[in-house]
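User: I'm new to structure prediction. If I give you an amino acid sequence, what do you actually give back? Let's try with this one:
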Amino acid sequence: MKHLTSTALALILAAGAARAETTIDFALWGSPEEGEVWKTIAAEFEAAHPDIKVNIEVADWDGYWEKLRVQVAGGEPPDVFAMDAPLYPDWQSRGVLLNLQPYLDANPSALDGVYPITLEAYRTPDGLFGLPRDFQTIVLYYNKDMFDAAGQSYPDDSWSYDDFRAAAARLTLDANGDGVKEQWGFWAEVYDMEPFWGPVVWAWGGSPVDPAAGTTLVNTPEAQAAFQFIHDMWKVDGSMPSEQELAQYGYDGFLAGVAAMGFSGHWSVPEYAAAGLNFDVAPLPIGPAGRATGVNSAGFVISADTDAPDAAWQFVQFAISEAGQAKLANIGLAVPILESVAKGEAYLGQPVQINQALFVDALDYAHMKPVFRGYEEWSSAVGDALNLAWSGEEALADALAIAVEDGDAALAKNQ
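Assistant: Good question. You get back a string of structure tokens that encode the predicted 3D arrangement of the chain. For your 415 residues, that looks like this:
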């Protein structure tokens, strides 16, 4: 066998190094269809960075968090993973996330054009340990066919909550008078604050929680009035289906075609469109303290234990670039964080012909969904207490008092 010269050996080693790949894993929750879009984003990134390969790992919401906890506890987390903004402080405070501030300091233009409110959830005294990927604002969905059949004018930016309540009552139908309703004026998910009761409380001038003070605020006079409005619309007017009434139709009354209106984020658009609903969106109504909605984001974080921090950062940077954000707009589930993309054809020209711009315009009166350690535990405590009122087990005032007591206990536990 011939001996290799030192020069030949060096060339072979250099060629091998050129072919070597850095592989990073990106984990997120979502549907298989979302996973396919992310694979195309990864492919575009790999074309520009041939030395880096990205593996995409997609799971449903519950499966994602369960697997992630096991991976992190076992010291084998994905290099990059998706983060729900309210849960971010829990993960950041454990020391398992990489501080991205040095990368941002080295590239001051990295966040140019990003909507500022979407960054707030990720700020810490030590810098940003995560970045937003996309955002959600809550809007009013309405079924145009149901409105047309009732001769009801469509909601617009002049609507107050009184207008909304009156329309919901008119759109609630028991066609044959047998005491069983076939249609309701409104439906929304009521457990977590994001889709419905949070925006209503803000519109009445209240606030759900003060994490810094460790205080749950659902029992202030403003919040009490907001919850009374919800209670009366639901339990007095009968304009919202009970859990038992909704059960035969599924989990979403608007999706099932039995509710004329709903509050939700952009995540509902693909599903409503796929169901063949003839719908559009309008701003949330005006409350006693003005118009208000909520804004929440999904984000990117990088594991503090990654073996490839630079490669992981390059992938995140690509995903928040115009090219990456334009691709993400194709999923149709959320709003891009870059103003240039959110106001461009990639987002506004989506196949579903509704008022896509409204989700962006809503930032003008949006409140950030609270972000603090223990949010999930606090939300469950408050949601469980409120359910006592919605089920009729407790009077509204008593349920709100329980929500404060249990919510404050959750806050104290996580200080």
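You can read the tokens as a compact description of the fold. Here is one thing that stands out. The chain has 19 helices and 16 strands.
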